[in-house]
């Protein structure tokens, strides 16, 4: 990302610039945490990194692709292929099973039904949810839901995982288990991870820490 600016309500009295010119580079295979106080711009940055929103200006290249040149359909396809998302509140679909939740990204990517069902089962086994893959989210604990969400993030085998406060809704023991899973994905599977968090202790475990203040990024300088 180079000189990323994000301004809302342009040309009105409520015009607000959240990112005034942000530079951010993540190398393949890194595990980077982004820390910052509420209102620092973390969520806006996450939405742009995840191709969920477009910057007002600046350039953003993801996996060698200039995202600013993509139309909405191409942007969705690139997001589906390149990024796995893990959210604080899981974002699982309540009316379907864990297995079906993991299948969803593959369905949108056009993966045949038999193949996606098999891969969803394999991923759920990998995250320790094999025995509960036919349960719906309301039958699972918070930690189990997050493990399902991690399996879903891996569905299309993305190289890049974007995790937004993934331990924020979990108790400390369960959060520890989930954090260990991220370490495994990074060290043993080579996944690039950007980890958005307000927890400086968890951030300190990652290979690099950046801090957001007033929409700008600086290296290190963990918030206390």
UniProtKB/TrEMBL annotation:
Span of domain ABC transporter: 1-223
Transport keyword on record: yes
InterPro entries: AAA+_ATPase (IPR003593), ABC_transporter-like_ATP-bd (IPR003439), ABC_transporter-like_CS (IPR017871), ABC_transpr_LolD-like (IPR015854), MacB-like_ATP-bd (IPR017911), P-loop_NTPase (IPR027417)
This protein's UniProt keywords: ATP-binding, Nucleotide-binding, Transport
A GO cellular component annotation in the UniProt record: membrane protein complex
Molecular function terms from GO: ATP binding; ATP hydrolysis activity; transmembrane transporter activity
UniProt-listed Pfam families: ABC_tran
Name of this protein: ABC transporter ATP-binding protein
């Amino acid at each position: 990302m180079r000189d990323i600016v994000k301004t809302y309500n342009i040309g009105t009295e409520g015009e607000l610039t959240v990112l005034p010119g942000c530079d951010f580079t993540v190398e393949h295979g890194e595990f980077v945490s982004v820390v910052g106080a509420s209102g620092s711009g973390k969520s806006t940055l996450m939405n742009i990194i995840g191709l969920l929103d477009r910057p007002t200006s600046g350039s953003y290249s993801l996996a060698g692709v200039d995202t600013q040149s993509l139309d909405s359909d191409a942007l969705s396809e690139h997001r589906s292929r390149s990024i796995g998302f893990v959210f604080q509140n899981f974002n699982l679909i309540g009316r379907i099973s864990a297995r079906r939740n993991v299948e969803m990204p593959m369905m949108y990517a056009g993966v045949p039904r038999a193949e996606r069902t098999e891969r969803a089962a394999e991923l759920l086994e990998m995250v320790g949810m094999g025995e509960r893959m036919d349960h719906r989210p309301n039958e699972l604990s918070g930690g189990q839901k997050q493990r399902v969400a991690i399996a879903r993030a891996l569905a299309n085998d993305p190289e890049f995982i974007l995790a937004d406060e993934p331990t924020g809704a979990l108790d400390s023991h369960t959060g520890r288990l989930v954090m260990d899973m991220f370490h495994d994905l990074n060290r043993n599977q080579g996944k690039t991870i950007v980890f958005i968090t307000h927890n400086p202790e968890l951030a300190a475990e990652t290979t690099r820490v950046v801090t957001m203040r007033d929409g700008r990024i600086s290296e290190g300088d963990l918030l206390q």
